[in-house]
User: Which sequence fits this backbone?
């Protein structure tokens, strides 16, 4: 599953302002073998209304090189695979 989100917070997880969208994404995440987050760096460190899944459920994060080094280090410390493009 490739998942784009409105917000990604280290503690809150992935979220969106749309409740129905989060429910559909939750259903897809439950059956996905691999979950890949694709989001630009502006989405990180933010929370939105409806939580989709916790960050720990993500297998790979793909984002741009503008992601702050501190956040990169935190992802790696949590054993999350990070791909910078």
Assistant:
């Amino acid at each position: 599953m490739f998942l784009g989100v409105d917000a990604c917070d280290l503690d809150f997880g992935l979220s969106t302002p749309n409740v129905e969208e989060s429910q559909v994404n939750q259903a897809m995440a439950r059956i996905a073998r691999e979950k890949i987050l694709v989001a630009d760096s502006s989405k990180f460190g933010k929370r939105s209304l409806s939580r989709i899944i916790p960050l720990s459920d993500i297998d790979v994060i793909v984002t741009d090189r503008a992601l702050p080094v501190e956040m990169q280090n935190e992802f790696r410390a949590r054993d999350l695979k990070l791909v910078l493009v």
